[in-house]
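Incident log, support desk, overnight shift.

02:14 A customer reports that sequence design results differ from what the structure should imply. Their input is reproduced verbatim below. On-call engineer (initials T.W.) acknowledged and began investigating.
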């Protein structure tokens, strides 16, 4: 087995020494009983046993405890108008369809019409041309395409590039709220804590461009009743957006919607940090923790 670099070993020692210190502090503070500790071990064992190649119950546990969101926030600092990140979620896949600006990501009948348009910009307000935008969402039944056993092709997901002026646009469907898996030990934990297992409606996006820090984010239409109680703590105030109602047959057909005269419009401004900005703000945040 290859030896780990000395710096990695030092970091691992620091992480585990800190973990053990706080774990012992937790046991002392709660006066944990032997039966309670055994129940915790059995619970974690069941979480691991529930994992399969298609289901990651351990990540789900990290999500509902808010740890995934916290780690993401620590590792993706933002300043000023830069778009905030949020959790990737388990439903991203690389086998997506490449589309041109103005085309659609969802097949007909998957949900109510929505058009998404916006710009990818620098923190100074300049356009970022050629940015790769990956986007995905569930259908109107709250399922992602990968959750269907008869999946034959990617649906409700697509990949496109921003134009020379940083603009982009595509047809989609109105996102809906949906439950995270609740039939396993994590679902039981949520019930015990009197918490629901719902995620508010949202549209995922991952944006990449040469020289810029990759952005993993999502946008949450306002008005969803679960927006204040997201089961995985992914919602951030800056990512809540308004959907405009457009009742105009000409506008609908101009955007390529084949049926109906109305649709929802989501307008976005995506602001990316350069790699240099990201490194600076990440180091700044790390330095501030050293002085606490």
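02:41 Re-run completed on a clean worker. Output:
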């Amino acid at each position: 087995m290859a030896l780990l670099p000395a710096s990695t070993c030092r970091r691992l020692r620091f992480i585990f020494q800190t973990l053990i210190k706080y774990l012992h502090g937790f046991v002392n503070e709660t006066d944990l009983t032997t039966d309670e500790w055994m129940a915790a071990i059995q619970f974690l064992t069941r979480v691991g046993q529930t994992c399969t190649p298609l289901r990651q119950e351990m990540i789900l546990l990290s999500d509902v405890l808010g740890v995934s969101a916290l780690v993401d926030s620590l590792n993706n600092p933002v300043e000023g108008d830069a778009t905030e990140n949020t959790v990737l979620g388990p439903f991203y896949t690389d086998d997506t369809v490449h589309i041109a600006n103005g085309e659609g990501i969802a097949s007909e009948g998957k949900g109510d019409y929505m058009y998404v348009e916006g710009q990818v910009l620098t923190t100074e307000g300049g356009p970022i041309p050629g940015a790769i935008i990956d986007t995905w969402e569930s259908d109107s039944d709250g399922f992602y395409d990968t959750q269907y056993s008869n999946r034959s092709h990617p649906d409700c997901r697509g990949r496109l590039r921003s134009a020379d002026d940083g603009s982009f646009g595509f047809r989609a469907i109105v996102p809906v709220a949906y439950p995270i898996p609740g039939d396993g030990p994590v679902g039981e934990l949520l019930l015990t804590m009197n918490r629901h297992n719902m995620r508010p409606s949202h549209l995922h996006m991952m944006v990449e461009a040469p020289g810029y820090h990759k952005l993993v984010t999502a946008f949450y239409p306002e008005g969803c009743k679960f927006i204040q109680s997201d089961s995985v703590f992914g919602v951030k105030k800056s990512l809540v957006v308004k959907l405009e109602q457009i009742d105009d047959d000409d506008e609908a057909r101009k955007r390529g919607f084949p049926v109906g005269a109305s649709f929802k419009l989501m307008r976005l401004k995506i602001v990316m940090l350069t790699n240099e900005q990201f490194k600076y703000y990440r180091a700044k945040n790390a330095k501030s923790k050293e002085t606490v």
